Amino acid sequence: MKVTLLGHATVLVEMAGANILMDPVLQDPFEEGAVTSCPKRVIRADKLPPLDLIIISHAHPDHFDIPSLVQLPRDVHVLCPIDKTILYALDALGFANVHPTEPMQRLI
Q1: What pTM value is reported for the model?
Q2: Fewest C-beta in 10 Å: which of 63, 73, 98, 107?
Q3: Between β-strands 77-81 and 97-101, what pairing exists: parallel, antiparallel or unpaired?
Q4: In angstroms, rounded to a whole number, what is the distance separating the alpha carbons of residues 51 and 31?
Q5: How far is Cα 56 from Cα 30, in angstroms, rounded to an integer?
Q6: What are the phi and psi torsion angles at 37 (to 5°)?
């Protein structure tokens, strides 16, 4: 397993048979221009490995970044909280495999 911190809360987990991107925020500044990482970064979505799962932990803009989601493939499974804002945005963006999940729900 390889775990890479891509900045702030964005983590890429690569393991045998699965690539998981958590809380994708792929560019600076984020939070509608309010926050910039130091050093400033840009993560090219086209250079990420093929994704199997995106996890969105909650709706704060430093974890749920619509400009970053726009860059990601729409057929990837997305695990997210049951949150009207997140679900509306994922639907509007065309994500087809969204799995809203209750807090602390066992997944396996």
Answers
A1: 0.89
A2: 107
A3: parallel
A4: 24
A5: 16
A6: -70, 155
- CA–CA separation, 99 vs 37, rounded Å? 30
Residues 61 and 38: beta-carbon distance below 8 Å: no
**Residue 53 is encoded by which pair of tokens?**
């799962």
Mean pLDDT of 20-33: 79
| Residue pointed to by tokens 């990420």 | 48
What tokens were used for 79? 């695990």
pLDDT exceeding 90 applies to what percent of the chain?
66
- Residues β-bridged to residue 78: 54, 98
Predicted pLDDT at 106: 83
What residue has token string 């909650």? 58
